[in-house]
Amino acid sequence: MEPQLKNVMRERWPARELESPGRCPVCGTERRTLVHPGLEDGLFHCSEDRWDVHACTACGTHYLDPRPTEESIGRAYASYLTHAAPDDPRGRSPAASARGRAARVLRALANGYRNARFGTRLEPQLPVGRYVVPCIPLLRDALVQQLRSLPLLPAGAQARLLDVGCGSGDFLQLARSAGWSVHGIDFDGVAVANARERGLEVRQGGLELLQATEAESFAWVTLSHVLEHVHDPVSWLQALHRLVRPGGTLWLQTPNIASLGHARYGAHWRGLEPPRHLTLWTLPTLRKALEQAGFRSVQALRTPVLTAMEVYASSEALRRGIDYAGFMALPRKQQRPLGALWPALRQHRSLARAEFLTVLARR
């Protein structure tokens, strides 16, 4: 079966709805080099434009210039992944194949591990998973990232959690199952509607919705692949600091422009994603920005091997010019899992070259 060709691009972005930051959005330096000229939106095909990515010569941050304005960038998310409707497990029919049975067992083992480590109440579960999963580091690391390193709450404890850019609420559902009082915000109206269908408390908009009433009120704030989307990321880090209560934690993840994947795939690296990704960080620059925002004890975490393999598979699809809907959706002859395993293991050993920058920052 031949790979599916990408859809035809949409209309061009109006010039009046573009802006030029002119300088690094992180450190303000004007000196820069053009790293990736003429990039296309090869993922969601929001326009037929080509986009330029520049590198700050002072701090190493990469940024889009020109870029869509705040008022117009919503058009880049018209077919975004957060628009998927919430899953309804009741509508699934059990697979009769050996692969289906194995997947159900693996899910039950994973739920057993999640329930023991994070306090979730997920079904179906195999309690032995609390012992089996730690013996499978690839799976264990992926599950810990999925729960965003949440601590296990003491029995009966109440703690508030905020997910910024919560999408359709997948993580909020898991955190709620673990006993957290969950809250979310997202700019995307379709994603917010999907989250509310799940009974989640989610508001549409940005951090300004919370500044007046929610200062220092959240024990755990998470920001998963959001920082790269905002026009003024430094101000966002400062606003996040005001929301975390003293002694609380910010969990943040964003693509790493210094990653092995970017070095390997260049302009086809999945993390570039123009025009939605406006700013891409390095670990030293992100750490410094968090500390300047008031956070302390900034701890970097490793990117799971399975996560990196997914990034490499999507980057390979971009390089080959085919639509990508998940690793297993690639034609079998193009999956090549062993080819992605070695670089995924290499990036796992290096915090500075990991695919994603993942940090825990304490207030």
Structure report:
- With 363 residues, this protein is an alpha/beta fold.
- It folds into 2 domains: 17-81, no CATH class; 151-362, Vaccinia Virus protein VP39 (Rossmann fold), CATH 3.40.50.
- 31% of the residues lie in helices and 19% in strands.
- The strands form 3 sheets. It has a 7-stranded mixed β-sheet, sandwiched between helices. The chain has a 4-stranded antiparallel β-sheet with strand order 2-3-4-11, with no helix packed on it. A two-stranded antiparallel sheet has the order 1-5.
- The longest helix has 21 residues, at 98-118.
- The N and C termini lie far apart (53 Å).
Distance between the termini: 53 Å
Low-pLDDT stretches: 1-9, 88-96
Mean pLDDT: 89
CATH architecture of the largest domain: 3-Layer(aba) Sandwich
Adjacency order of strands in the biggest sheet: 8-7-6-9-10-13-12
CATH topology of the largest domain: Rossmann fold
State the major sheet: 7 strands, mixed
Order of helices and strands: EEEEEHHHEHEHEEHEHEHEHHHE
> What is the share of helical residues?
25-40%
Radius of gyration: 20 Å
CATH class descriptor name of the largest domain: Alpha Beta
